[in-house]
């Protein structure tokens, strides 16, 4: 397994240093000194054909001459020698390489060619994994292993740090020594030619010594691997990320509104949010946040209360909180009364809670406790400034003792110098994060609350939104690929709207008119008032050339508008082909909201969806939200709630609320369209009018990816997340002719999944989970129903009862290893449906699913007393092994089976 091969890099017993020299200040000299002098317990082989010894250690001419094959080789030669050295290492059977040498793709075209040669050599050895090139190396404090040219070794800890910048690594290490921060692993990945962020998240996600992962990201190349790994482990281990290059000058704005608004950084923001990661914007705050999130007291929201002994710091914290989008919670009447009864008369009578400068430790702690007991409060920030009557150490001790009574997050700001050190030490021991300034604390809190929201997204159960299509989508796709998309790079408004309308999104249908007379005739057929738009395949933004006219009420206005519009457009764009105008009915939007809805294909992350404030000012206000298809009800609703104009959709100051449910349906339909057409490079609906009753696309534009149209790509390869696998829906019958629907599980299935487990006996639950599994909680259930269909697939057996309601009567689950080569299988059948061959039917179907995914081996485990399932495995020709501890292990080699066929 490729991930396991990383053991040769991070747990080597023998290391070869290729290109090491006698210069103590060289990369090789420092690395050798770090290994030998740092306490590494393994064997180090210096390799240099020009040296008999290095620093008194015998040197070998090449890797073939080594007495034993090393697990890891570190290459630190000039770049031109690296391809040959990679080949020699592969031929010698070395599975792990770190290439510290620079001079590859980061140095220009010649470097890119050289890196391509290294890749070509590496491809000859499938078991080889490479970190680098152009990297600092790695440090594993638990093994006293410093395979880098960074000085010193940080202390052993539980944070895995992964960085694309070697220079930043040295700065972070210096800072870590000073701040006594510890690491489980410290990795500089450089150009990440082979081992990527996704690989390392997979590896450290399974490492018991790693409790959280910190990423310094400049760019991500393998998007699907990253997203799959991050979503798989972010539920169990916090992943904190800092993304540099937020405003790249080289990013070219696309021609459409969607393209211009979907900037590189906003796409990365959507990636981190969808993966459940915590994004930090201030690198100096990253380890403060890592420390905070490691304490496992995650607020459920962004509603903060502040307790302080001075007004100024409370105001500073409030300013920072509001500026960053947090909420200063309004304390409940009950809490206010309790504070009034306890505090002196001159307290602030609001939030922030000023307990006054003469506050005793007991007053501080009791006020904090009262505030924490308020149901509206998600977290409390306690701020203390040194005053004549203040005892910082005793107050810290009182807060720490009180903190054991609550599960809510407490943060402390002990503002001052040496007098605060003992109190801060008490907080550290009590698991309470402390900060030097109010702003620093607020930044950490807001990052924490955003992280909490991202995590909740992974656990939310969306509402069922019935979406049906008027046409067969496969037949529809054939029509557009053969008849419509080949017409032009940019489809005209009519063709663009036709596709959108076919996906169930209402549009106004424009009709082309080449002359004034035609325009009048069409307008009278549609009925006044009408809208005229310039008709040109070369003009993208019609309003920029005076190419849009609204509310035209009679024939005379149609003629005058036609003449003026064609004349103005010709003057402003003499290069454009003007073919007349289009005429469409005027939609009364005075009680509606204008939105923009669109998709754009990013070169790294594939198709991304955007919704935001629409109209001609869309790019100006940039009130937008990006997400990745596929969408469900909850994700679509979150997109809308994040917009600044959402209150207008809800109904603002007496205005009628807009049809948000219909709008959510439109977003979901758009996500289907985006998933079905990798040939669409960009799609704009602007404006999309949302009224109290309707959602209508007034203008639309589609840009075709002509390269993919000529050279079709693998299904869904343009999506960073695998859509719901509709192709796996299958109708079948049991031996008694009972019809059953086999289909992949959905997040919306949570209620039925809970009913399934609730109807199972303790014995059935034990046979499935091998322990007394507690399932009756939303957090647990969502983990089993909300899956990414990439590494994990669950097939449910759905039965329709006599009253028309549906139930899940069984579920088979396949979970792949990170390399997606081996899948573990588990099955649960409700007691009432056992002994009806449902177990056999479901297992056989899951076996075929695994084969279709290219899985090499299927494994499962049960107990000896589970005779029905052992019988099923025997029928399906699994290898069965009875273990000494009463368990039974079964396996099936799918590769061998395919070869036999």
UniProtKB/TrEMBL annotation:
Residues 497-533 form the ATP-grasp domain. Transmembrane segments: none annotated. InterPro entries: Acyl-CoA_Synth/Transferase, Acyl_CoA_acyltransferase, ATP-grasp, ATP_grasp_subdomain_1, CoA-bd, GNAT_dom, Ligase_CoA_dom, NAD(P)-bd_dom_sf. The keyword Transferase applies. Keywords: ATP-binding, Ligase, Nucleotide-binding, Transferase. The keyword Transferase applies. Residues 740-895 form the N-acetyltransferase domain. One of its GO terms (molecular function) is metal ion binding. It comes from the Bacteria. In the N-terminal section; belongs to the acetate CoA ligase alpha subunit family. This is Bifunctional acyl-CoA synthetase/GNAT family N-acetyltransferase. It comes from Maribellus luteus.
């Amino acid at each position: 397994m490729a991930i396991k091969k990383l053991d040769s890099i991070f747990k080597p017993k023998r290391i070869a240093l290729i290109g090491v020299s006698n210069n103590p200040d060289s990369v090789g000299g420092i690395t050798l000194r770090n290994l030998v002098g740092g306490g590494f317990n393994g064997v180090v082989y210096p390799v240099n054909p020009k040296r008999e010894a290095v620093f008194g250690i015998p040197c070998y001419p090449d890797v073939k001459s080594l007495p034993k094959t090393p697990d890891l080789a570190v290459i630190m030669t000039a770049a031109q020698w690296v391809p040959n050295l990679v080949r020699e290492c592969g031929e010698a059977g070395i599975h792990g390489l770190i290439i510290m040498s620079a001079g590859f793709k980061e140095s220009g075209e010649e470097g890119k060619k050289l890196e391509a040669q290294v890749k070509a050599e590496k491809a000859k050895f499938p078991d080889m994994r490479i970190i680098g090139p152009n990297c600092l190396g790695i440090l594993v404090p638990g093994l006293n292993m410093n395979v880098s040219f960074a000085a010193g070794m940080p202390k052993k800890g539980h944070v895995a740090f992964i960085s694309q910048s070697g220079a930043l690594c040295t700065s972070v290490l210096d800072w870590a020594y000073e701040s006594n921060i510890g690491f489980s692993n410290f990795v500089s990945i450089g150009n990440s030619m082979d081992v990527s962020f996704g690989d390392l998240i997979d590896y450290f996600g399974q490492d018991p010594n790693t409790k959280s992962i910190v990423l310094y990201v400049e760019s991500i190349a393998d998007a699907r691997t990253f997203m799959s790994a991050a979503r798989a482990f972010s539920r169990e281990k916090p992943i904190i990320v800092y993304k540099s290059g937020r405003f790249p000058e080289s990013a070219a704005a696309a021609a459409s509104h969607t393209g211009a608004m979907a900037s590189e950084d906003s796409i990365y923001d959507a990636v981190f949010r969808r993966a459940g990661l915590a994004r930090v914007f201030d690198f100096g705050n990253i380890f403060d946040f890592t420390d905070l999130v490691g304490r496992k007291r995650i607020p459920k929201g962004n509603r903060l209360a502040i307790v302080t002994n001075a007004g100024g710091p409370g105001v500073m914290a409030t300013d920072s909180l509001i500026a960053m989008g947090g909420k200063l919670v309004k304390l409940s009447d009950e809490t206010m009364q309790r504070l009034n009864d306890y505090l002196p008369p001159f307290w602030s009578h609001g939030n922030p809670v000023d307990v006054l400068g003469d506050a005793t430790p007991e007053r501080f702690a009791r006020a904090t406790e009262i505030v924490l007991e308020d149901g509206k409060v998600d977290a409390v920030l306690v701020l203390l400034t040194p005053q004549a009557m203040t005892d910082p150490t005793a107050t810290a001790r009182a807060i720490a003792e009180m903190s054991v009574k609550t599960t809510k997050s407490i943060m402390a700001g002990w503002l001052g110098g040496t007098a605060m050190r003992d109190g801060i030490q008490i907080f550290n021991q009590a698991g309470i994060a402390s900060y030097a300034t109010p702003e620093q604390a607020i930044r950490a809190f807001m990052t924490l609350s955003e992280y909490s929201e991202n995590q909740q997204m992974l656990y939310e159960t969306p509402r069922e939104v019935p979406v049906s299509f008027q046409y067969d989508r496969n037949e529809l796709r054939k029509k557009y690929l053969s008849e419509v998309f080949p017409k032009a790079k940019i489809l005209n408004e009519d063709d663009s709207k036709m596709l959108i309308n076919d996906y169930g999104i209402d549009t106004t249908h424009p009709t082309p008119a080449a002359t004034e007379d035609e325009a009048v005739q069409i307008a009278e057929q549609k009925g006044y008032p009408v809208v005229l738009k310039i008709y040109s395949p070369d003009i993208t933004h019609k309003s920029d050339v005076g190419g849009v006219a609204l509310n035209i009420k009679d024939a005379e206005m149609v003629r005058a508008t036609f003449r003026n519009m064609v004349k103005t457009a010709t003057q402003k764009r003499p290069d454009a082909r003007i073919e007349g105008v289009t005429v469409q009915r005027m939609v009364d939007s005075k009680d509606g909201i204008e939105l923009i809805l669109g998709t754009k294909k990013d070169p790294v992350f594939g198709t991304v969806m955007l919704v935001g404030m629409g109209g001609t000012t869309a790019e100006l206000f940039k009130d937008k939200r990006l997400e990745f298809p596929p969408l469900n009800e909850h994700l679509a609703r979150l997109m809308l709630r994040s917009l600044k104009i959402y209150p207008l959709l809800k109904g603002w100051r007496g205005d009628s609320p807009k049809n948000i449910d219909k709008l959510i349906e439109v977003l979901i339909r758009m996500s289907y369209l985006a998933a079905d057409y990798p040939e669409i490079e960009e799609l704009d609906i602007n404006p999309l009018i949302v009224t109290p009753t309707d959602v209508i696309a007034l203008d639309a534009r589609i840009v075709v990816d002509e390269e993919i149209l000529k050279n079709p790509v693998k299904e869904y390869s343009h999506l960073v997340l695998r859509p719901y696998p509709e192709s796996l829906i299958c109708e079948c019958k049991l031996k008694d002719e009972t019809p059953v629907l086999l289909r992949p599980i959905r997040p919306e299935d949570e209620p039925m999944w809970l009913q399934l487990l609730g109807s199972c006996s303790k014995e059935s639950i034990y046979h499935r989970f091998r322990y007394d599994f507690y399932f009756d909680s939303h957090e647990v259930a969502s983990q089993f129903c909300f899956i990414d269909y990439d590494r994990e697939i669950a097939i449910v057996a759905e039965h329709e009862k006599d009253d028309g309601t549906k139930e899940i009567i069984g579920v088979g689950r396949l979970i792949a290893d990170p390399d997606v080569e081996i899948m573990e299988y588990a099955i649960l059948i409700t007691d009432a449906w056992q002994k009806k061959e449902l177990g056999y039917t479901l297992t056989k179907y899951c076996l075929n699913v695994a084969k279709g995914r290219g899985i090499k081996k299927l494994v499962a485990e049960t107990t000896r007393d589970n005779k029905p399932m052992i019988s099923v495995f025997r029928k399906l020709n699994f290898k069965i092994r009875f273990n000494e501890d009463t368990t039974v292990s079964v396996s099936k080699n799918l590769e061998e089976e395919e070869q036999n066929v």
